[in-house]
Amino acid sequence: MTAANWARTQLAEWGLASSRLEPWGRRGKAWELERFSVEMLAPYYLRMNAIPKAWSPGTAGIVTGTPVLVTIRGDSDFVRYRGKLRGRIVMNGGTAVPRNRFDAPARRLTDRELDSLTRITDPGEPRTYWEDADGFLEALARRKRIDDFLRDEGAAALLEPSRNANAILTASHVSYSTDRTGAVPAFMVAREHYDAILRLVERQRAVRLELSLTSRFTQTDSLGYNVVAEIPGTDSRVGQEVVMVGGHFDTWQAAAGATDNAAGSAVAMEAMRILKTLGVNPRRTIRMALWDGEEQEDYFGSMGYVKRHYGDPGPMRLLPDHAKFSAYFNVDHGTGRIRGFYLQGNAAARPILAAFLEPFRDLGASTLSISNAGSTDHMPFASVGLPAFNSIQDPIDYDPKTHHTSLDFADYLLEDDLKQSAVVMASLLYHIAMRDERMPRTPLPAPKRANR
Known about the structure:
Blueprint: H1 2-13, E1 17-26, E2 30-42, E3 46-47, E4 50-52, E5 63-65, E6 67-70, H2 78-81, E7 89-92, H3 111-119, H4 129-152, E8 157-161, E9 186-189, H5 191-202, E10 208-218, E11 223-231, E12 242-248, H6 258-278, E13 285-291, H7 300-309, E14 311-312, E15 317-318, E16 325-330, E17 338-342, H8 350-357, E18 367-369, H9 379-383, E19 388-393, H10 398-402, H11 415-433, H12 448-451
Parallel strand pairs: 6-7, 7-8, 8-9, 12-13, 12-16, 16-19, 17-18
Antiparallel strand pairs: 1-11, 2-3, 2-10, 4-9, 5-10, 11-13, 14-15, 17-19
């Protein structure tokens, strides 16, 4: 809540209207990490580079032992290890082939790549919100079954290798809505340290590990909150209609979440500050939201907002404000400058956005792709048929280094790129708010039962 309260106060100091913490719904317990240690004591000493999984309960004091290697990817693997894990430190996962070290980790999108994006004719997947959400939920359910198996088998602790060779890629014991107080204490381990220990165990060396974790579950408030602020519309005819920008401000425990997604949150805030400083009087309301719970099962913050204001995608039950919405723009792909937007299948929006982005062609921000994009906060808006566009951004070193990793600190932010993104976004929001008409829409999606 510290970040949310700071953002709300800052937006109010800039003079934005109705700066507030708006509840999106009820959330489960919070999780706080107090201290931890992961060490190898034999055959030599190694202070291991590791991060506890989010929502991991603490250990019962110091856990010491020889690790056991397993490969558990799904339910079919359980029978191999039943009755063999009680009291053991479990290492789940094998060695990995190193990434090609001759590829530069940071890069920008090339003209050829951007041109290819514009030439796509089939939007592709995810064609619906449910295509996007259901696969993720199935993966979470599979992970929970593995967690429950290890708990039921009495494992003392779990170590898993980072899937990123450059940093520790974080993970969690599911999230808000799942009670993990009885789960096995678990850690993600740097790839090089995990592989080194795995090889020692495979060669039957006498490996001895010692680990500890102190964490706690808290619940000072049963509600979750988004940060919302706006510049009110001035046109008596369309002033209640809304143009929105947003990005999530929740993050993972291994770092500060600078590129995922303090960067997108900062771009949204700065776009609003620019417009307020210029003293614009938009015809429609320009609203900004910083979303809670994007990293969780169901885009908790943005989906809660959409259900509260615009409609429920399950039964496709729409609310009156659904008719007063123009467009939503999402920023959630790291520090790289905005190069354009994914149209989410909305071909009618292309010429409108192309005209508004044309002045920024020299800044490289004119690409429009018909493609569907998923896995972030524009999807709840698209789920009820509202125009929603996700930014195309230069990748820089987002996936190789910072996305969900222990390196995601402010050192990896590019200030000039963030400034470019904020300027592009501010202009786009203003011009769409000033249009005679709302942004065009695609056909309303079918209810959930018809999609299955």
